[in-house]
Amino acid sequence: VLRGPAAARYGSGAAGGVVNIITKKVTNETHGSVEFYTSQPEDSKEGSSNRVGFNVSGPLIKDVLSYRLYGNYNKTEADDVDINKSIGSTAAGREGVKNKDISGRLAWQATDQQTVLLDISSSKQGNIYSGDSQLNANAEADAILSQLIGKETNTMYRDSYALTHEGDWSWGKSKLVAQYDKTHNKRLPEGLAGSVEGKINNLDDKATSRLETLRFNGEANIPFEYYLPQVLTVGTEWVEDRFKDNVSTTQGKDSSGSGYGDQLAKGDRSKMESRIASAYIEDNLKVTDSTDVVLGLRFDDHSKSGSNWSPSLNITQKLNDNFTLKGGVAKAYKAPNMYQNAEGYLLSTNGNGCPANIESRCLLQGNGDLKPETSVNKELGIQFQRDIVNASLTWFRNDYKDKIVAGTHVVGTVDGSSTNANTGAVTNTKWNILRWENTPKALIQGFEGSLGLDFGDIRWTNNFTYMMDSKDKQTGNPLSLVPIYTINSIFDYDITDQLDVNFVFTQYGRQKSRQFAENRLESGIGSGGANSALKPSTVKSYSTAGINVGYKFSDQISTRVGVSNLFDKQILRDSNSISQTYNEPGRAYYASLKYSF
């Protein structure tokens, strides 16, 4: 996991950090495992989970051609449709999910220095509908939604193909990757505006959105010494996305092609595409035995939002045998997504969702002239390590500029008048046009730390995050609904070589909702009047705990059983709250059984 300035060289979307997933390598001997997992909640209204997975790896031609195969099936049942009724809420509980994955790899050792990898994977994920709709309609009382409870209303299919060449040369290491991903999202259509927004309105005809992504990446790592020992990394990347969405681009469309949506964007509104071409360089310098410096620079050119330079500097200074000082600063970057750039993508509101200073209907239109979001990420931390103790404390600050938000300024109007085909009556409608825009500034700032004690058979690991600031400087509202602090603590005890026990504890600080109204409804001047005005709320601090025990019957067979949310701290989603927006599951019992060979 790379966070802060160290993540900047990974390009668009890396402002908040990057997770590098390192998969298991193929093996020259046959190895594998099969694992079963189940989780059964104590509350019968919560959905249970069952999962089975396998992986196997070995040689097809020893020392030349090897393989790895992985598969997984998971099913989590949906919460009951009335799980939140006890607090007077019509909000749905958690949706269920059915997931199937299979992936394979062939590894060809072409020479002692060169390896060629072929990766192919396929997955299917479908939901189990629990009654969710954007405005929390009562699913049990709705003629359409009530028929869908427990059924699959959207299905995601994803296929991926990748070819990789890895070289280990006398001058360094190289890696070339070509990857193609294809994703299809089939879902029942939903309302696009007003009181039916986000609510499924058709039982039969699923529509399909299609995304294709082509990615090329080349990278070389070159160790050398020129005044100082160093490792130079140079790379280039090309990412191209092509998206066709017949579902979310029909607002203002009619059969004649003269609807207000067709007036605002010509051609096929359902087609969107983007391209990012990038190059980067990073130099890891060993300045002294106690000082490491990493200099980086990345250039990105986006087909819509233009070019961006992202420099970075990270320093590690060992103060003595126990203390190490770390600091960094970098400019991070995020390109607009395809919806935000597409002029044919329209969101509409009949008035309640408009900014408070606009009285009639509004359209939010994609904007091809958006600037990319950027942020200057800084961090400064100290680490202490001695004998059994490993501790750290880090300050971080991200100053955002040009963050992309829904616009509040009217840039034009469009005639949305329509004629009733049966009566001939004409409805005169004018829409105010807003566009996605760049807001001046936003800020995230806080501290994170860790404390670990390792006694050998007994280990105690702790980490915390404290958020000092998380706000949009234009509205004053938080950027996201997160706890003011989070503390995680894990106590591990290896009782014997076969038996171990783990205690897990998490403490969440209070979570504050938006404090300032952002539309007519929240301002108390929409159709709901003062009753619909924004009522700031807070989720109070709470904690969860768990315990699990693992046992190895042999080198091949192991098991683990446990209890999550041991003290049954359950939180239910409230349809009348803008902070209590999720369900925290109650106590559950889980077990796994693994066979390795």
Automatic annotation (TrEMBL):
Named from the GO MF annotations, one term is: siderophore uptake transmembrane transporter activity
Q: Where is the composition biased (Polar residues)?
A: 247-257
Q: Give start and end of each TonB-dependent receptor-like beta-barrel domain.
A: 136-566
Entry's PROSITE patterns? Answer: TONB_DEPENDENT_REC_2 (PS01156), TONB_DEPENDENT_REC_3 (PS52016)
Which locations, inside or outside the cell, does it occupy? Cell outer membrane
Region span, Disordered: 247-268
**Which membrane topology term applies here?**
Multi-pass membrane protein
Gene Ontology terms: biological process: siderophore transmembrane transport
Q: Which GO terms describe its cellular component?
A: cell outer membrane
Supply the InterPro entries for this chain.
Beta-barrel_TonB, Beta-barrel_TonB_sf, PirA/FepA/PfeA, Plug_dom_sf, TonB-dep_rcpt-like, TonB_rcpt_CS
Question: Could you confirm whether the keyword Transmembrane appears in this record?
Answer: yes
- Highest rank taxon of the organism: Bacteria
Enumerate the Pfam families for this protein. TonB_dep_Rec_b-barrel (PF00593)
- TonB C-terminal box (motif): residue ranges: 580-597
Keywords from the named record: Cell outer membrane, Membrane, Receptor, TonB box, Transmembrane, Transmembrane beta strand, Transport
Supply the NCBIfam families for this chain: PRK13524.1, PRK13528.1
Could you tell me which PANTHER family the record lists for this protein? TONB-DEPENDENT OUTER MEMBRANE RECEPTOR, TONB-DEPENDENT SIDEROPHORE RECEPTOR PROTEIN
Q: Which family does it belong to?
A: Belongs to the TonB-dependent receptor family.
Instruction: State the protein's name.
Output: TonB-dependent receptor
Q: Which organism's genome codes for this protein? A: Acinetobacter baumannii
Q: What is the lineage of its organism?
A: Bacteria, Pseudomonadati, Pseudomonadota, Gammaproteobacteria, Moraxellales
